[in-house]
Amino acid sequence: MKHNLLNFTRGSQLLGHFGFMFAAGLKGPLIVTGLVAVGTCYWEVRSALSDHQIYLVWMHIYTSLYAFMEFDPAKLVNLELLDGERVGLPFGIVREFPPMREAVEAFRTAVKQGLLVSAVLLIPAFVFFWWFAERFGGRSKERKHERGAMLVSLDELEEEIERHNKAFRAEELGRKFGWKWRLASSSALAEAGHYQPARLAGVSWPWRLEQSHAMLIGTTGTGKTVALTELVAEARERGQRAVIFDLTGAFIEAFYDPARDIILNPVDVRCPLWSVFNDCTTEAEFHAAAEALVPHDGGGSEQFWVLAARMLFVEMCLHLARTGATTNEALARRLMTADLSEVHKLMRGTMADPLTAPEAARMAESIRAVFNANAKVLKLLPSSGPRFSVRHWVKGDCQAGSILFLSARYVDMSISSQLLTLWLDTAMNTLMTLERTQDLRMWFLIDELGALHRLPALEKGLQTARNFGGAIVTGVHAFAKLKEVYGENMAMTLSSLARTKLILATADRETATWCSDFIGHRQVRDMEEGYSYGYNNARDAVSLTPRRQIEPLLLPDQFMNLPRLSAYIKFPDGFPAAPVSLIPRTRGRIAEGFIAREKPLIKPGQGPAATTLQAKPGSKPNDEHPASNDDGTGKPVDTKQLKLDLEGQRRVADEPQDRQEPVPLEKLNAGRAAGDLGAETRSDTHLDAGPTLPLAAVQTGEDAPAMGAEQHPSEPGTAGDDAAGKGGSTPQARAVTSGHQSLTPVEKDLREGAVADPPEKDFGEFEPDM
Predict the structure, then answer these.
(1) Is the pTM of this model over 0.70?
(2) Can you tell me where the transmembrane regions are (predicted)?
(3) What does CATH list as the number for 151-180+197-273+383-525+545-612?
């Protein structure tokens, strides 16, 4: 009840207050209306009636009042005639006097005419006053933009951009051609190759701001691919080159031209033969490739294991480049699947030497495991077909308008993402080695930035690619995914470097808040209206108080509630934001998005992994030098790190052809018997004459040429070696034992299949100091 009484009191007071205020507002217009009406009527009466007629009108009014008061109708009243004479007439019939009736009728006509004139004047004036008062009252409470970002309609934005581009076009063409350029049409200038701004979501870019880069933000199914498709179609029409990361195959289906386009997909049959050695020739280039192939976790500092894996990869690539074994198969066999002792022998004397030392076997295997986990896709690359180099393609070794598609299905991203990252990183780095230009040279379109691993060249590309003709357009689903890949600070850096934003519907509040910050904030002034009332009406009042505040131009909820294919676009250089609508266009399918290879590249039981030597279960323990697969001291190990083919040495396909020719063992024994080696010799006639080794290797103890020999799973004599290691005997083992009471270190290495390293101190388990 109390609540109802308060509401009634408040309502009645406000109604009374508003009523009095409304009446006070009408008082002025009503007074003016009355004055104007009286004035026009007086003017019309004085213009239409003579003085005698006006006199008769006043007498008519007088007699009408006399009759209204019901006085004596027989009383005479003196009327002055037109000629000045006076005549007496009774009050009851004086109003019927013809001259008086004519005068009254003329007076009524004049008054009507005056009211009509006043209405013609006052009605528009009153309407204008009402409109002005209503507008003034509305604008007095209207929030006013004082400074900051602005939101306009799409038409206003397009008009502003058109004025901007027109001024810059006139300035640029005037410097090149003088006043004569005005004689050419826009189509003629376009055909001549003169710059024409590209369009994003149907809106023209401001003059030469495509190279300020763009970021498309929106969850799945909101229209990012629609905007990118229109951009690709325009680039294709103008003959511009592009590098496109196509995760769904939609761009390949719509634009792939086998005559001039390239598809890089390790599991697609259309992928050409590519190797890291095709794009890297210097140590710096190998380091750049390692950063893309083995990314770190996006934290503040790169982890030791990642840095070590990169160093191992770079040193192995440099070794293979020096020896001429520049193939993916050689890289996989020498680094990814080889025994650790073999890797260490190749890395001896390089910066990766301590990283692969057998004394720190656990660390070495961890480092290689990090590399293998990221570079396993190298084994899927094709081994035949036309050779392709991303670096040469970027430098112009392609047709005009060529598109490089970096493609992968979602199911293949877990294994292909590192390689796609490497290709895209190589393309960006190569672009920034070309000559500087202000013209648009190449597009980089990345539909799903978070699907790739960290792109080391992306930050540098966003900063400097504009100077080399590069325009980067990235698509982002959510800010959280970008932070996961690049870290929070780098994610903010990348988003700030892409200055053009096309923001579609977002699904989470963090991304929506992020987008709201991109559009910007503004300072506004609001007028707060207050009411006061009391028992006495003199205390009733309305107050307006100004208040300034800073607020976002668009709230996060507005982005979260956007319908699909609706967006806000924001260009740099102070252009306001505006809402846009995307119009999807149906395009014919001219190619298959993905064509799988008919046969697997590596069949089960084949390939480099099938020839990897495994430790024998009967191997004896060794506490001094743990093997590469050992977890610590005291585990069963095999001291023979490498087995030599005692039935015949065969050359590895990727070894250089200018190696030192091997010397038969008979000649080696003969030379040793003649004293060439300076060591005591004994008969080795029980050994087969087939196997050979380079003479220099045996003389010096160097073991690098021994890498040419491989141990085959079916190689005979292995079981005998195992038996000998356990204390058993075979005919061959007994013959060797009887013929050699003492052996030199070189002969022992020859017998065991590897060059034994001098004993070194066992450092135990190695833990890096992070």
Answers:
(1) no
(2) 20-42, 115-133
(3) 3.40.50.300
